[in-house]
Amino acid sequence: MSAAGAEHPAPAAAPPTPPSPRRGRRTWRALEPLLWLGPATLLILTMVVWPVVEMIRTSLTRVSSTGLSQGFAGVRNYTDLFAEGDLPGVLLRTLVWVVGVVTVTMVVSLGLAQLLNSRFPGRRLVRWALIVPWASSVLMTALIWRWMLNNFYGVINRLLMDLGVLDAPVNWLADPGPALVAMMGVAVFVSLPFTSFVLLAGLQSIPAEVYEAARVDGAGPLRGYLGITLPLLRPALVVAAIINVINVFNSFPIIWAMTRGGPGFATDTTTTYLYKLAFDNQSVGESAAMAVVNFGLILAVVLVYLRVVRRQEDTP
């Protein structure tokens, strides 16, 4: 080494610049929403999106009676489904089922919510009693009603015969008309608690000052109800109606426990019909096509309902 090199050593490397605290905070703020939304997003992808994708894939696949995939089938499953002679009746019955149950449920629940929102002795007991059908198993409730409607040992036939209304027991679930009405009654019975408490929460969120101002302006009870209560209750009504449409449309235990969709397909809705296609007819692909149609129908109903409600809100 030369003397000049010894006298002038090479400069030492500069120490690394520590990361800026502000940059670290900005990175954390950018990642924080992902940490909060990540589990929910993963749950939605796993429990909602993936089954829908598999359902659509299966509807386009030729599946054997043993469950083996036999390749791409195109729209053959859909053409076979729409060629079924029972499908128009099933679709019409599903419409009657959903509209009838949801309409009666909303009207009766609105009255119950008004009752529970007022003060009277035993109100807390009535509220607890209303929860019982909601807390009970839907399948158990349907089986109890099936027993009550039995023509041999059912208590409803016995009661009507004791009152002189009937001369002989009636097999209520053997005739499609009475059977459908009975199942709709059970569906309303199990839907009332949730809907009533949703509307009750909406009623309790309306400020009392609004009614006092209306009374000062000379508004009577009817005008106050139509001009104040119903408009302010609209968000709760929308939520209750949409959830009821989804639940009633996809209702399976009530129909299957009481009539199994029979006699034949006379009391089937699309939900029980697709089950029969898969397990009775061994037509898995056709059943998947029915499930896709089912999903599209309920999605269309919800979107149309939201569109109508939004248009009413925008109308002055």
What do these coordinates show?
- By secondary structure, the protein is mainly alpha-helical.
- Residues 1-6 have low confidence and may be disordered.
- A two-stranded antiparallel ribbon has the order 1-2.
- Helix content is 72%, strand content 2%.
- It starts with a helix and ends with a helix.
Largest sheet: 2 strands, antiparallel
Question: Would you report the number of β strands?
Answer: 2
Lateral strand order in the biggest sheet: 1-2
Low-confidence residue ranges: 1-6
Helix/strand order, N-terminal first? HHEEHHHHHHHHHHH
Strand content: under 5%
**Rg, alpha carbons:** 30 Å
Helix content: over 70%
Number of helices: 13
N- to C-terminal distance = 94 Å
Note the topology.
Blueprint: H1 3-7, H2 21-59, E1 61-63, E2 69-72, H3 76-82, H4 87-117, H5 123-135, H6 138-148, H7 155-162, H8 176-204, H9 208-216, H10 221-249, H11 253-258, H12 270-279, H13 284-314
Antiparallel strand pairs: 1-2
Helix pairs in contact: 2-13, 3-13, 4-8, 4-10, 5-8, 8-10, 10-13, 12-13
